[in-house]
C-alpha cells in the first residue's frame, strides 16, 4: 500500500492579484505628471509622457532610439515603429506636452540620433530594461498613493487607449492605435464588454 504524500506545492498565484493591470485614470495621469514636474525628474517625465502617448508595449518603449521620434533636432508630432512582438508597424501621436519633455531629456543627456532614447544606468546594458521600467512605474504610482500591485507596464499601454474608447466608443480607432490584428483582441485587452455592461447596470436604479 502506497503511503499518502502531502504536497507542499503552493499555487503560483496564491495571494496574488492576477489578470489585466488597471489603466490610469485622467486624474491619476495628471497627478503623476505634476509630481514628476515638481520633482524635476526630467528622464522620468519624458518616459511617462511618451509611454502614455505612444501606447507601446514596454519592450518597444524602452528600445526606442532618438531617431525614432525626432526629425532633425526636433521631436516629431507623429512617429512609427515596428512592434517587436508582432512585427506590425504602428503609428502614434506625440503631443506638445510630450514633445517638450522628450526634447528637454535629449538636451539634458546630449543624446544623438542613433542613441537609445532611454539609456540604461546599469553597466553593460544599452538601454533601460523592461524590469527597470516596471520598477520605475511602480515608483510613480506609489508616489501618488496607488497600490502598486494593481498597476504594471501594460497600465501605461492601456491608459490612453481606454480614455479614447470611453470618449469616442470608436473601437476600430483604438485597434489601429494599439496595433492589434484582430478587433477581438482589442475588446479583450480593454475589457470593454465588462466595463460597458457594468456601466449599463449602474444606470438602472429601481
Care to describe what's here?
Residues 19-205 form the Tyr recombinase domain. Keywords: DNA integration, DNA recombination. It comes from Variovorax ureilyticus. InterPro entries: DNA_brk_join_enz (IPR011010), Integrase-like_cat_sf (IPR013762), Integrase_catalytic (IPR002104), Tyrosine_recombinase_XerCD (IPR050090). This is Tyrosine-type recombinase/integrase. Residues 1-18 have low confidence and may be disordered. β1 (70-71) and β2 (74-75) form a beta hairpin. The chain is globular, with a radius of gyration of 20 Å. The protein has helices spanning 26-38, 42-54, 58-62, 66-69, 96-109, 130-143, 153-168, 171-178, 183-190, 192-202, and strands spanning 70-71, 74-75, 78-82, 89-93. It has 206 residues and is mostly helical. The strands form 2 sheets. Strands 1-2 form a two-stranded antiparallel sheet. A two-stranded antiparallel sheet has the order 3-4.
Amino acid at each position: 500500500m502506497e503511503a499518502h504524500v502531502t504536497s507542499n506545492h503552493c499555487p503560483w498565484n496564491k495571494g496574488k492579484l492576477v489578470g489585466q493591470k488597471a489603466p490610469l485614470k485622467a486624474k491619476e495621469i495628471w497627478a503623476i505628471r505634476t509630481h514628476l514636474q515638481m520633482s524635476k525628474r526630467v528622464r522620468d517625465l519624458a518616459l511617462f509622457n511618451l509611454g502614455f502617448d505612444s501606447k507601446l508595449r514596454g519592450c518597444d518603449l524602452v528600445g526606442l532610439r532618438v531617431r525614432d521620434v525626432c526629425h532633425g533636432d526636433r521631436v516629431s508630432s507623429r512617429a512609427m515603429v515596428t512592434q517587436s512582438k508582432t512585427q506590425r508597424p504602428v503609428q502614434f501621436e506625440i503631443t506638445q506636452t510630450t514633445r517638450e519633455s522628450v526634447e528637454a531629456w535629449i538636451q539634458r543627456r546630449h543624446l544623438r540620433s542613433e542613441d537609445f532614447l532611454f539609456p540604461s544606468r546599469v553597466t553593460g546594458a544599452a538601454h533601460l530594461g523592461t524590469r527597470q521600467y516596471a520598477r520605475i512605474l511602480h515608483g510613480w504610482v506609489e508616489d501618488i498613493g496607488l497600490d502598486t500591485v494593481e498597476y504594471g507596464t501594460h497600465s501605461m499601454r492601456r491608459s490612453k487607449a481606454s480614455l479614447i474608447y470611453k470618449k469616442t466608443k470608436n473601437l476600430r480607432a483604438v485597434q489601429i492605435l494599439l496595433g492589434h490584428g484582430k478587433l477581438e483582441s482589442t475588446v479583450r485587452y480593454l475589457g470593454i464588454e465588462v466595463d460597458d455592461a457594468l456601466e449599463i447596470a449602474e444606470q438602472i436604479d429601481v
